[in-house]
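Example 218.
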Amino acid sequence: MCQGLEDPEVDIHSERFVKSLFSEMSRTYGVVNLLSSLGFAYFWRKLAVRALPKDSLQVCDLMTGGAECLTHMRTHFGKETRMELVDWCEDMCARARQTVRRYHGKQVEVINASALALPSQDASYDAVVSTFGLKTLSPDELLDFVREVKRVLKPGGSISLLEFSMPENAMVRFFFRLYVKFYVPFLGWLFLGESGQLPDAVAIHQGVWELQKGRPAV
Ligand SMILES: C[S@@+](CC[C@H](N)C(=O)[O-])C[C@H]1O[C@@H](n2cnc3c(N)ncnc32)[C@H](O)[C@@H]1O
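Predicted structure in complex with S-adenosylmethionine:
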């Protein structure tokens, strides 16, 4: 179980917590994510990638996880497109490298770095995508994230962001809460072998609320 998960005092946005959470989940993240989204995550990512201009030559996937967007990026962008996949969790980067090898990605590089302090130069990318990572960032970090994306995007570049949101419809919200309270922890029990909560349930619950309470105005 991720250290400190059951401690209400734990800072769920701290680097230590987020890295250990995803390190622990790295082996099963892909399948848990597919099941926990009932398969929708695949299609949502596809839409997020397809929202970017097809002719982008330099593209970056921030908080890439196990490179879950890569299959869509390869289909959407041309063979000439160079793709950089960034994640700060070494175990997730290892998964991403496996995915890259499966796709024989010569034009793809996995970079172990923080999305808030990228090693990239200013104006490096035509397009940036980031899926399901925003909920792990605190409100202050969200601002840093937006500033960093603005720095590395070329003038006129594009960004596509994807994240869960709390449903506005009361009935849908009711079912979403049941889903977070029962279904996601059930998957945690199934895949992590713990009767406690799946770490992602905590992140979904708290992170999604925080995201909607304080949207950064940059
Ligand atoms: C919920 S996963 C999303 C993975 C993938 N993008 C997807 O669509 O499923 C969030 C990922 O963001 C990474 N992450 C969180 N905060 C980060 C940061 N500040 N810098 C780089 N990666 C970060 C985590 O290590 C984790 O792999």
